[in-house]
Design goal:
Blueprint (H helix, E strand, L loop, with lengths): L2 E12 L2 E12 L3 E5 L6 H8 L7 E6 L2 E2 L5 H6 L2 E3 L12 H8 L7 H7 L2 H20 L15 H14 L4 E5 L7 H18 L2 E5 L3 H7 L2 E6 L2 E6 L1 H5 L2 H8 L2
Length: 253
Amino acid sequence: MTVLLDVHDMTRQFGGLVAVNHVSLHVNEGEIFGLIGPNGAGKTTLFNLMTGLTPPTSGKLSHRGQVITGLAPHAIARRGIARTFQNVRLFGNQTALQNVLIAQHIHGKSGMLASVLGTKRARSEAREAHERAMDLLKLTGLTYHQDSEARNLAYGDQRRLELARALALRPNLLLLDEPAAGLNPAEKRSLSDFIRRIRQEFALTILLIEHHVPLVMGLCDRVAVLNFGELIALGNPADVQHDPAVIEAYLGA
């Protein structure tokens, strides 16, 4: 298998708190990889390290064999690493369509002056961006809400819009931070089907944080478990689920 993302000996300290402690793991191209652990285990901090929002104290991060440690978030996004957030972060005063269009600017080649002048290339890019945005809104079931401001959408619709915006970045690696948060059981089942679908349709590798363990175990090819910032288990779902260290971390000794 081809390694898409390699995390080597990654550590992040905040003063005296070690949020991520010498974590090493890799994500293979095309797999759905789950990251689980109790609250405060360091999962979101590790996501922030992977996407450049937080610089590591030490360690190395590589994407497709190239070191990307220390790159700015926009540079990492341009390489094809996109994410959603545990707490939805949309442009609330912008419409659903505008939120998806904004995400595509990172791939624009015309430049601001060409856009202002309305050159042929700029118009062509704008038309293609609009078509792609509408396709993504249709994929996520949000076509009807294309002109609605994001802040006025129902919570489930906001989470789907954030997914559409992440896909607009044309990622090869999609990081999902608790995508099932706030969803009912039927919506969680639909989410699993949707994640499998976009992996196939967009040739994606997917890395997700999720507290709903049954969803992770039924969806992921491999699972890593963090506890107090340390990696305590890594492997296929069946093995991880029965690992004594994992059981202790969730249930206590």
